[in-house]
Amino acid sequence: MISKKMEQALNKQLNNEFFSAYLYLAMSAWSENRGLKGFANWFYVQYQEENFHAMKFYTYLLDQGAEVDLLKIDKPETKFSSSLEVFEKTLEHEQFITKSIYELVDLALSEKDHATNAFLQWFITEQVEEEASVNEIIDNLKLVDGQGNGIFMIDKELGTRTFTQADAGQ
Fold this sequence. Notes:
- The model has no long low-confidence stretch (mean pLDDT about 95).
- This protein has about 170 residues and is an all-alpha fold.
- The protein contains six helices and no strands.
């Protein structure tokens, strides 16, 4: 069993993960509407990963005998000025998620909740990978400086991304 405080914090993170999925679905639609099918694909795969992450929290809560509290999901931002801005917003959001995971770890440690701490370690590693991946795309977008040929090449590369549970960390 986990404490009520931990249960509430994990449910908040469950909501954060579902919001992340919703945000990336909106970014996928924004990209698709601009003819950037590769960018849309990248964000759609990100949407799938975030749903998978949310379900990890859902399952963990149930496995710990805790209540799952499905909170309201806020409407995500849907207006962006450029692909670079979309990825800068993505990095900002991933940094928020990293901070929230760290806060969960701090809570688990303060409560001597070793099971939750162990569960959260996977997410710490995942967040390092998420931020590094987004930073690389931002660097590439800055290099091409909005030029069509460069955007076309990045779009083609992002279109090759696929979702597998193995990649998302089972």
